[in-house]
């Protein structure tokens, strides 16, 4: 059994097993949710990230959570939106898949996702929501999933998109 929920809020405040970071391929921090996570986790997070050798778009790597209430941070790198013909849907789906695979490997029970690529990287929010929800549902149906997956929306547009999409899928 698993639960799939959407909430509005700041992902850095959540006491879950892992929060997912919408990082860039350097894994050395940035703006948006990445900046917020590094600020809240403290400099030890950057020090661990510096040992990881970066991360390819669509892939994910895991670190400890340090001063965050979450135990782990799963850093994934979403695609930059370039119009949709540069493999963006597959790469975004891969972010969710690889993050959940890491959560499974580490036997984590609760994972919280931000709306990857929908900020600075410019992915259309409705299309990103569809990929996120469908990707997570597909994963949960096949694998031994984390018991709780949370979609954490920062803005009202994403919140409304996710509420509607989860209701359509029978999760709200
Ligand atoms: N909690 C939850 N969601 C948040 C928070 C927060 N504290 N802050 C922002 N968001 P973005 P991207 C939402 O730009 O598009 C960074 O510089 C935000 O409203 O953080 O994947 C990285 O280093 C949006 O819906 O990530 C990369 O260079 C979502 O998080 C680049 O931005 C993602 O927006 C990645 O761009």
From TrEMBL:
Recorded hits in InterPro entries, A to Z, give:
Macro_dom (IPR002589), Macro_dom-like (IPR043472)
The organism's place on the tree of life at top rank: Bacteria
Pfam families from the entry?
A: Macro (PF01661)
| Alphabetized SUPFAM superfamilies for the sequence | Macro domain-like (SSF52949)
| Residue ranges the record marks as coiled coil | none
- The Macro domain sits at 1-170
Q: Which PROSITE patterns match?
A: MACRO
Q: Record's PANTHER family?
A: GANGLIOSIDE INDUCED DIFFERENTIATION ASSOCIATED PROTEIN 2-RELATED (PTHR11106), MACRO DOMAIN-CONTAINING PROTEIN (PTHR11106:SF27)
> What is the protein named?
O-acetyl-ADP-ribose deacetylase
| Lineage of source species | Bacteria, Pseudomonadati, Bacteroidota, Cytophagia, Cytophagales
């Amino acid at each position: 059994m698993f639960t799939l929920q959407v909430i509005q809020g700041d992902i850095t405040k959540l006491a879950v097993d892992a929060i997912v970071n919408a990082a860039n391929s350097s894994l050395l921090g940035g703006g948006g949710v990445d900046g917020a996570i590094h600020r809240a986790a403290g400099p030890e997070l950057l020090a661990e990230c510096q040992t990881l050798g970066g991360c390819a778009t669509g892939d994910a790597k895991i670190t400890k959570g340090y001063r965050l209430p979450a135990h782990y941070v799963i850093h994934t790198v979403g695609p930059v939106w370039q119009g949709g013909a540069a493999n963006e849907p597959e790469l975004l789906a891969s972010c969710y898949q690889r993050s959940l695979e890491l959560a499974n490997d580490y036997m984590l029970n609760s994972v919280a996702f931000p709306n990857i690529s929908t900020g600075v990287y410019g992915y259309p929010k409705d299309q990103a929501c569809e990929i996120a929800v469908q990707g997570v549902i597909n994963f949960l149906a096949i694998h031994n999933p984390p018991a709780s997956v949370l979609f954490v929306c920062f803005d009202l547009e994403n919140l409304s998109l996710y509420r509607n999409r989860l209701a359509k899928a029978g999760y709200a």
